[in-house]
């Protein structure tokens, strides 16, 4: 086995396109232990945010700088009546979780509605996140959706704005992003519809909701869990409802075929955490499968959006999902999974003009990149990756060209996955060494950029590629930061230097451009 692999990376100085922070979005749903027992843990102590959220969880959520948070579902949204979740908590009705109770009490616990619209929106205010709400299309009505927009955004003398003011929030929340239904074409979704039916529904909801607030941005259902068979969804929806639509929602979980087919293998034998190289590369390799899905959807948008308009993508559910039931109750993600997230974010940067919105599914416990129960709260490596990107990524993408070998997997992904960004005098490089056990020695060439030798280096790694954090060892995997003086060689107007990148690691290198 080679002791190291040589890779060169050339970076151009001119920005390719802006990078919206809205690609670093999150999602919470009344499902499994996400809200009940996770985000909402009323009664656990006397000092809780809004009377029900662990302070340490608020801090953990804040630490990953969520740009967007989508709520209340997911599938839950198409069975949810938002009016159940407002007003004095002790008066709110207790309901069956219509979407998830059929899969048992763990996934669909009885819904006491104590975390509802105001709790969600005030949590977003506290976190500095832009909220996104999904209206109920599957079993709700246009009138209910319109009233919800008015409750959130209407003046305090409007019918529902006054109700909001009575519930303690005089000023409108100004919720900008609204989803009209969720995965509405799936047999699993409450009130599912065919694409032509949904076109009518979407247009009806959109026109009515915009009468209350013309500034809202509307997100329509597109394709999800690609089976390769439903190529009709995006074109039908874009052609029929594209004029009224601001974004097209797409969903995908990876390594997708494993979710059901290999459920037993992952859940019972717990191979998701196995040190097997084969599984490591299958999972890492699925970055390519997701990229192919995004590329196909981006093509749909370019071809089928109404003339003179492009309806960009909102990739509002994406993540690794191994064991169908267990992960929906309480997931945990390891170093490998964090590297997969970094590969995804690098890919999202490349697709930013086509896909300005994205939400990892989900944020807490249920498929959650943060774990929080009465036993404690910790960031998984996937959440650490969000922390690193949101703290260090610049506003624009720079072109980077990687010259090096591929990982030993049929996808042929390059060993080094890179994204380079810039904000004024700051260049940040996100380099993911995807190799299971070999170090990468990289030569970085920054064309036309004279850089300062003082660099900040931020790393997420561990000697064990499948190391998890746990309630007992919440910091076993952690982010390490250091300052280093690098040996820069001047190359004409540019600079170059060498760096060693540990096996299965993410390194963010923050550089300062001289005289920028
Ligand atoms: O994120 C879990 C579920 O997966 C969501 O509710 C649904 O939209 C998707 O199928």
User: Globular, elongated, flat, extended or rod-shaped: what is the shape?
Assistant: globular
Mean pLDDT: 95
Question: In DSSP terms, counting alpha (H) and pi (I) runs of 4 or more, how many helices?
Answer: 12
Structural class: alpha/beta
Q: How many structural domains can be distinguished in the coordinates? A: 2
Beta strand % = 25-35%
Q: Which residues form runs of ≥5 with pLDDT under 50?
A: none
Per CATH, the superfamily of the largest domain is Glycosidases
- What is the fold-level CATH name, i.e. the topology of the largest domain? TIM Barrel
CATH class descriptor of the largest domain: Alpha Beta
The molecules bound to the chains, other than polymers, are: alpha-L-arabinofuranose
Quick structural gist:
With 516 residues, the chain is of the alpha/beta class.
Description of the molecule:
The protein has 516 residues and is α/β, with parallel strands linked by helices. The chain folds into two domains: 4-14 and 397-513, Immunoglobulin-like (Sandwich), CATH 2.60.40.1180; 20-392, TIM Barrel (Alpha-Beta Barrel), CATH 3.20.20.80. The chain is built from twelve helices and 20 strands. A ten-stranded mixed beta sheet has the order 17-16-20-14-13-12-1-15-19-18, with helices on one face. Bound molecules: alpha-L-arabinofuranose (AHR). The site of alpha-L-arabinofuranose (AHR) has 11 residues, from loops. Alpha-L-arabinofuranose binds at residues 29, 31, 73-75, 182-183, 317, 361-362, 367.
């Amino acid at each position: 086995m080679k002791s190291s692999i040589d890779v060169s990376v050339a970076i151009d100085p001119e920005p390719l396109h802006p990078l919206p922070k809205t690609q670093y979005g999150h999602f919470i749903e009344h499902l499994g232990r996400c809200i009940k027992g996770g985000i909402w843990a009323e009664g656990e102590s006397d000092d809780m945010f809004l009377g029900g959220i662990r302070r340490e969880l608020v801090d953990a959520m804040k630490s990953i700088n969520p740009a967007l948070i989508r709520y209340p579902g997911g599938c839950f949204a198409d069975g949810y009546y938002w009016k159940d979740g407002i007003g004095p908590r002790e008066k709110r009705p207790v309901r069956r979780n219509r979407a998830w109770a059929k899969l048992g009490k763990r996934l669909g616990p009885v819904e006491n509605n104590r975390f509802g619209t105001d709790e969600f929106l005030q949590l977003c205010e506290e976190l500095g996140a832009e909220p996104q709400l999904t209206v109920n299309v599957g079993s709700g009505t246009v009138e209910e959706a319109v009233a919800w927009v008015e409750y959130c955004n209407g003046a305090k003398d409007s019918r529902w704005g006054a109700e909001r003011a009575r519930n303690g929030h005089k000023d409108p929340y100004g919720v900008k992003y609204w989803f009209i239904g969720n995965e509405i074409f799936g047999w699993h979704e409450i009130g599912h519809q065919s694409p032509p039916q949904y076109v009518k529904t979407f247009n009806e909801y959109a026109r009515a909701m915009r009468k209350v607030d013309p500034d809202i941005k509307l997100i329509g259902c597109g394709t999800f869990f690609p089976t390769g068979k439903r190529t009709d969804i995006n074109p039908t929806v874009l052609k029929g409802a594209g004029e009224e639509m601001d974004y097209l929602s797409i969903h995908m979980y990876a390594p997708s075929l494993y979710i059901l087919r290999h459920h037993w293998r992952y859940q019972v034998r717990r191979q998701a955490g196995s040190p097997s190289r084969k599984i490591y590369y299958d999972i890492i390799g699925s970055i390519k499968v997701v990229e192919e899905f995004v590329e196909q959807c981006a093509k749909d948008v370019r071809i089928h959006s109404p003339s003179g308009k492009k309806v960009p993508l909102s990739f509002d559910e994406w993540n690794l999902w191994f064991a169908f039931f267990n992960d929906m109750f309480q997931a945990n993600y390891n170093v490998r999974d964090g590297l997969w997230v970094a590969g995804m974010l690098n890919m999202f940067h490349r697709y930013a003009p086509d896909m300005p919105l994205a939400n990892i599914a989900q944020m807490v416990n249920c498929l959650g990149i943060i774990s929080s129960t009465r036993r404690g709260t910790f960031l998984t490596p996937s959440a650490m990756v969000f922390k690193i990107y949101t703290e260090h990524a610049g506003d624009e993408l720079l072109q980077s060209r990687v010259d090096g070998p591929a990982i030993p997997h049929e996808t042929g992904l390059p060993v080094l996955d890179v994204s380079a960004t810039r904000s004024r005098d700051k260049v940040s490089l996100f380099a993911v060494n995807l190799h299971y056990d070999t170090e990468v020695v990289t030569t970085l060439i920054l064309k036309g950029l004279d850089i300062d030798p003082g660099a900040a280096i931020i790393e997420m790694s561990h000697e064990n590629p499948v190391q998890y954090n746990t309630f007992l060892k919440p910091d076993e995997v952690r982010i390490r930061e250091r300052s280093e003086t690098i040996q820069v060689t001047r190359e004409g107007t540019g600079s170059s230097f060498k760096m060693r990148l540990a096996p299965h690691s993410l390194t963010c290198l923050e550089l300062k451009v001289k005289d920028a």
